[in-house]
Every structure is written in structure tokens, then in C-alpha cells.
From TrEMBL:
A Pfam family per the record: Mpv17_PMP22
Protein family (similarity comment): Belongs to the peroxisomal membrane protein PXMP2/4 family.
Assigned keywords, A-Z: Membrane, Transmembrane, Transmembrane helix
A GO CC term attached to the entry: mitochondrion
This protein's name: MPV17L2 protein
Length: 212
């Protein structure tokens, strides 16, 4: 009963409207990664804080903006490096790691900083501080993931596959981007909970009361 409808939907999503599918899925999954990361944060030292939906919205915007690059990047790789031989896949992975990975890390950190109201100088400083943590972690995750992608996945499913794997990766990106702010919030929350006890024989102006 639903089979023809599902086939038509699949044909449209992964054929005629593939660009839209890749863009929208990128935004949704980056936002989902942030929701997961905030859930982890709120279960820890920041459990007194409220969920920041505006932060999730900004993550969604960045994921959506990166969607077109993802879409055309993989089409270009398949065009210039066709085939699934070991040599071809190795070249694709190296291109992805040397070109796409640094671009995405830089775009993410500077883009998020801009959406959060940071100056370009502050965003660049944040990029210098966090870039290598993201880029080195990228080398441990994406080469094996992309080997599977380039060998097994048809061209029109590459971005969807990457976006799915990216769910865990996006959780990590959210953590790296916001860990400094989370530490500051936790410290402030801890200070707010502390009670200052004033001895009974001390006045607020610091003078010692005379013993009665």
C-alpha cells in the first residue's frame, strides 16, 4: 500500500531534491548533536542550568550553511576521482582530510562565534585555540568512516551517510566549542550556592562587638 509512495519519496529526496535533503539533514543533525551534548552537560556540574535552545538554533544554522559545500564537495570528488580502487579511495580520503576537514573546522568555530556575537578577532583567537584539538580528532574518526563511504556508498547517499556519522562528531564539536563557557557557568553556579557565614561577634562593617 505504501510502497509506491515510499519509492516516490525516496526518489525525490535522493534524486531530484538531493541538494535540499543534504542541506536540511546537515542542519538537523548538527542541532541534534548539540541537544545530546547539552543533555550530557545538564547531567553534570551544570545541572542547575537551563537548556540553551538558542545555542541549538545556532548549531542548526551552521549545519545548514555547511550543507551546500558538503553536497558539491562529494560530487566533485566523484567526478575527478572516479572508481573504488585502493589508490583512488586513498586519494579521496587525503583530499578530504587536507582540504575539507580544515575548512569545516574553521567555518564551524568562526561561524558559531559570529552567531554568538563575538568579534572576528575573538573568533579567530578561539579558532587558534581549538583548531588542532578538532583537526587531530578528525584524523582518528573520518579516514576509516570515509573509506567505508567511498567504497560502499553510492554517490547520491554520500552526504546522508556522512551526516549520520556526523551525529556523534557534532556532539564532540559542540563540546569543544562550548567547554570554556560551561566551565565558567559551573564555577559561577558553585559560588552562588555557597553561603557566607558571619560570626555572631562580628558586625558587617568588620568591627568586633564587645563581649556582653
Amino acid at each position: 500500500m505504501f510502497a509506491p509512495w515510499i519509492r516516490t519519496l525516496s526518489k525525490n529526496l535522493f534524486g531530484r531534491y538531493l541538494l535540499v535533503t543534504n542541506v536540511v539533514s546537515g542542519g538537523i543533525l548538527l542541532a541534534t548533536g548539540d541537544v545530546i551534548q547539552q543533555t550530557i552537560e545538564l547531567a553534570g556540574p551544570n545541572n542547575g542550568q537551563k537548556r540553551d535552545w538558542s545555542r541549538t538554533g545556532r548549531m542548526c544554522i551552521i549545519g545548514t550553511l555547511m550543507g551546500p559545500f558538503n553536497h558539491f564537495w562529494y560530487k566533485m570528488l566523484d567526478f575527478y576521482l572516479p572508481g573504488t580502487t585502493f589508490k583512488t579511495i586513498t586519494r579521496k580520503i587525503l583530499c578530504d582530510q587536507v582540504v575539507a576537514a580544515p575548512f569545516f573546522a574553521s567555518f564551524f568555530l568562526i561561524g558559531m562565534g559570529s552567531l554568538e556575537g563575538e568579534s572576528i578577532e575573538t573568533s579567530i583567537a578561539d579558532l587558534k585555540k581549538k583548531f588542532w584539538a578538532i583537526y587531530l580528532a578528525d584524523w582518528t574518526v573520518w579516514p576509516p568512516a570515509q573509506a567505508i563511504n567511498f567504497y560502499f556508498m553510492p554517490s547520491h547517499l554520500r552526504v546522508i551517510y556522512v551526516n549520520t556519522i556526523t551525529l556523534g562528531w557534532d556532539t564532540y564539536l559542540s563540546y569543544v566549542k562550548h567547554r570554556d563557557a560551561n566551565g565558567k557557568r559551573a564555577a559561577l553556579a558553585s559560588l552562588e550556592k555557597e553561603e557566607i557565614v558571619i560570626p555572631a561577634n562580628v558586625e558587617l562593617n568588620g568591627n568586633i562587638k564587645k563581649a556582653q
